[in-house]
Amino acid sequence: MSNFLFAQFGYKELIDKGVLDTLKFVGIDAINTKYLEFSPMFYDSGIVYVSSRPGAKRKFDKEIDEAFFTLRFCEVDSNGIYSNDDLFSYNLKLKNHFGPCAFSIDENTMFLSRNKKGVVKRHDKEENVNTFGIYIYKYKNGFWKLDSEFPLNSNTYNVFHPTWDEANKKLIFASDMPGGYGKTDLYSIKYVNGRWIELMNLGSTVNTDKKEAFPFIYDSKYLFYASDADGGKGGFDLYVSYKAEDKYLPKINLGDKFNSENDDFGLILSPDALDGYFTSNRQGGKGKDDLYRFSCNKSVFRVFNTYYTVNVSDNNTGEKIDNAKITFSKYKLVAKESPKIAKIKGIEKEIIYTIDPSTIVESSPIYTDKNGNSQVKLSAGSYIVKVVKNGFIPYSSVVNTEKNSRFFDIKLKPSVKDRFVFAFLDSETKKPIKDIKIELEGGDSIDLLNEKGGKYILSLLRGNRIKMIAGAEGYINKELIIEYGITPGNFDILMDKVKKYVKYLPTTTGEIMILKDILYKYDSDKLTRKAKKELDKLVNHLKSHPKLEIELSSYTDSRGRRDYNQKLSERRSQSVKKYLIRKGIAKKRIKAVGYGESRLKNHCSDGVKCSDAEHAVNRRTEVKVL
Question: What is 60-126 written as a DSSP string?
Answer without folding.
Answer: EETTTTEEPPEEEEEEE-TT--EEEEEES-TT--SSS-EEEEEE-TTS-EEEEEEEEEEEEEETTEE
